[in-house]
Amino acid sequence: MKYPYGISDFQDINTNGYFYCDRTDKILLIEQAKSQLFIRPRRFGKSLVLSMLENYYDVAKKNEFDKIFGNLAIGKNPTEFRNSYFILKWDFSCIDPSGTADNIKQSLFDHINACIENFYSFYNYKGYDLPKIKINYKNALYSIKSMLSAVQKTPYPVYLLIDEYDSFANTVMMGVQSKESRYNAIVHDEGPLRTLFKMIKSSTSSSMFDRVL
Prior knowledge:
This protein is mainly alpha-helical. Helix content is 46%, strand content 8%.
């Protein structure tokens, strides 16, 4: 029996003979709320849950559904929303927490912009013909709005998955060289992280992001 230690790619685990304790029946419960914050200890499997949802909801993986989920509970009784979303995924562990607050803000914007560029190229490659998305490398919030405007011209809503959402903020707060003023500049008042999540909340309320986890 192969154990998937350190592997958080759901498709890799379930199609390459790794042990997997089937929890896909919980997808139905997750669907009951459009926006959720899922908090568990480190190494608890949060990233694997996000990968499971990414594979389940991604419209570009519709033809692979039976291969990925056919032997699992949700594969035998899928919900109506399977393979019906564009997936936008952010991994905040990729953001550089060093430097000044402005440096960290730019690293945050760089990551989001890179994810949006990948989103655009991936779905166009898959044949979904998205309208052009304008990227502002100094202001990722503009890029997000441009992406959402493009997506609204298609039949598919966006499911936003955020992994390690507090990773770089915790690193800034707990690092040996961390300064409280720098942490406050990032997560309090009108800092970039707070402003970003306010925008996500607003976009969810207006149905631009259909679901967020």
